[in-house]
Amino acid sequence: MRLASVSAFTLASVLALASTGCSSNQLIDLAMNGSSHATSHQGLRMGSRMILAGDMHCHVLPPDAPYHVGRGLPETFALAKSESLDFVVLTPHVPARFFMNDKIRNWVVETQQELRAQVAQLKPDMIVIPGFEYTDHRYGHVGAAFADPTEVLAGLSAEEARETPERFFEMWVQRGGILTINHPVNRALKDPPFHELRYDLSWRGFQGGVVPREIAWITSHAQSLETFNETATHLRDQFILDDEDRSLREAAHLADQVARHQRRRFAAVGGSDSHGQWLRATTFVLAKDRTAEGVREAVASARTCVRGPEACTLEARLAGGERAWLGVGDAITTGESGSSGGTVPFEARATGDDAAFVVNGTIVATAESGKTASFLVPTDRCAVIRAVVGRSWSSGIYVNCF
Fold it and tell me: Which residues 6+ apart lie within 8 Å of 103 measured at CB?
């Protein structure tokens, strides 16, 4: 993987221009165009699966408003092609509980149909997945893709939705849809240079307390978590907080906790969250084939990594003998007694830069590219093994979880 260079004076330039009348989107574009990012990822494979690169969080005008997003579909596809993206998920904003109001329901259906028709007309040379970002300013944001809201709403009346608001999301998942909890740990900052950083964008469903029924349902059923948000990492964490990995580290640990507590796969995905003239390869999936269904299946089975492709090369196995190697998203039951304090030896490897192997949020071993590291995994509870390879972070391999 190659990394684009980072300008040391990018933020200073942006702040200087802030007084010239430039729009917020223009200033963010300037700052983001200097961010480090993966620029080479094509042709990589792991066994029978190919590694595809994409962006799971991309806004587009229309349906997004022109004061909020400065890029239409043609520009979006041109940017995606320039970044060598294999897939892009379109996530224009829709308001919270839109399914309860006939007028707003109709607007969502019409704009989604128009978006899909325009995608079909433009025939982009990449996989394009129309979706939306469910935007609840009180409780958090959710990316929804791989299903069709027209079909879901056709089977759900506004009256039924008012009585059981979680039903829309249940039906979305039943029809093959993926729900992604976006920027789950991004809380408000005090006096940041961009007003977008003043809002609490975290997911309240993880914070305890009473939440609406649909928020509770999403918290326990969403298949993926946006552990890497390019805008938050570059603008918020690197420049403002002076800790580039802050939200990624916290969100990855949160994904591990949720997977272990709920005893299920929980994919780590990434998104640019771009509203302007830039996109990024932020999510890398281990797909069976280069199709929308290949991407969907990879996310649903947590065969993903973020920020770079290298961590998708993670393999782990029970130590001793000629046991089969497991890949990202795989699961194993060790067959141990499960007594308190018990452990079982594992070994792992990955290709790329030096790798750090993480078990339940703690680094347990490191190794050079392609070399095997040994460590112990607890047997008395669900354990999640991940890898960090250079700047790339993987989803888990699940031990005694299912």
Answer: none
- Write down the pLDDT at residue 3: 39
pLDDT tens per residue across span 357-399: 999 999 999 999 999 999 999 998 999 999 999 999 999 999 9
SS3 content of the chain, % helix, strand, coil (to 5): 35, 25, 40
43-308 and 312-399 have identical folds:
no
pLDDT at position 31 is: 74
Q: Cα(187)–Cα(200) distance, rounded to whole angstroms?
A: 4
Q: Are strands 87-90 and 127-136 parallel, antiparallel or unpaired?
A: parallel
Q: How far apart are CA 382 and CA 258, in angstroms?
A: 11
- The verdict on pTM exceeding 0.85 is yes
- Rounded Cα–Cα distance for residues 342 and 336 (Å): 8
| Distance in angstroms (rounded) separating the CA atoms of residues 308 and 319 | 28
Q: Which helix (H) or strand (E) holds 255?
A: helix 246-262
Residue 235 pLDDT:
81
Contact 374, 345 (CB under 8 A): yes
- Domain spans in the chain, listed from the N-terminal domain onward: 43-308, 312-399
Per the listing, tokens 């890497």 go with 228
Q: Report the candidate in 242, 229, 240 with the shortest Cα–Cα distance to residue 14.
A: 240
DSSP 85-118: -SEEEE--EEETTGGG-HHHHHHHHHHHHHHHHH
* Dist. CA 92–CA 111, nearest whole Å: 10
> Which of the residues in the chain have pLDDT under 50?
1-10, 12-23
Q: Does domain 312-399 have CATH number 3.30.420?
A: no
* pLDDT value, residue 41: 62
Residues 6+ apart with CB under 8 A from 66: none
Alpha-helical runs (H) found in 267-356? 292-300
Q: Which CATH architecture fits 43-308?
A: Alpha-Beta Barrel (3.20)
- CB of 277 closer than 8 Å to CB of 210: no
Tens of pLDDT, residue by residue over 289-328, are 999 999 999 999 999 999 999 999 999 999 987 789 999 9
The DSSP-derived string for 26-92 is HHHHHHHTTS--B---TT-EETTEEEEEEEEEE--TTTS-TTT----HHHHHHHHHHTT-SEEEE--
